[in-house]
Structure formats: structure tokens, C-alpha cells
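In this supplementary section we document a worked example of the pipeline. Step one takes a protein sequence of length 114 as its only input; no multiple sequence alignment statistics are reported here. Step two produces a three-dimensional model, which step three serialises into C-alpha cells for compact storage. The input and output of this example are shown verbatim.
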Amino acid sequence: MSFLNLTVRLLLVSVGVFLYGCVAKPPESSIGLMSGETPGSWSATKQAKAGVDSDWVKRFGDRRLTAIVNEARPYGDQHTIIAEKTTQEIKVDAVYDAVQHYIKKQTTINEVSV
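The serialised model returned by step three reads:
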């Protein structure tokens, strides 16, 4: 085995060990350390656990907050629809731009070859 081969192998092993040491690891869970019950005011209602608690905001006890959420609630679906339409329009524009670029490129190639 030549000195160069040994050096390259040693370098590769060193880099491998270094990179392995840099791998991100998730933190240890501390959920098991928690003892006692969750306070009732922090726990979800039966409706929330079932996924149908539509009056969750009332539990804050703030009439202004409840009014704001109730006013905004009917428009939630409209915002989702508008966001999806905007995304579709952006994709269509990107395809249109790509086609225009391709046509321009082909036209330039044809002009040069004539």
C-alpha cells in the first residue's frame, strides 16, 4: 500500500467521522418527566377532542375576541379558494413564460441557420 493510498483512506475516514458527528439529532423527550394532571382550563373539551369544537374562542371569555373571530369565520373558505386560484395562476404564468422563452429560442436558432 502506497503512502498516497494510506493518506487518502485516512482523510476519507476522518471526513466520515467528522460528518457523522455533525448529524443533527432530535432532543430527548421530557414528556415522561411531567407529573400530575393538566389543569382543566388547559384541557380540550369533548367537542375539541372529537374535532368539532366550533366555539373554542368563547372559552377565552373575551367578548371582543369572540366577535372578531365570528366576523372572520365566514370568510375563511373564501381565503383558501383565493389562495388556490392565485397559486394556479402563478403556475400558468410560469408555463406561459417557459413556452414563450422556448419559442423565442427556436426562432433565434432558425434565423441563425437560414
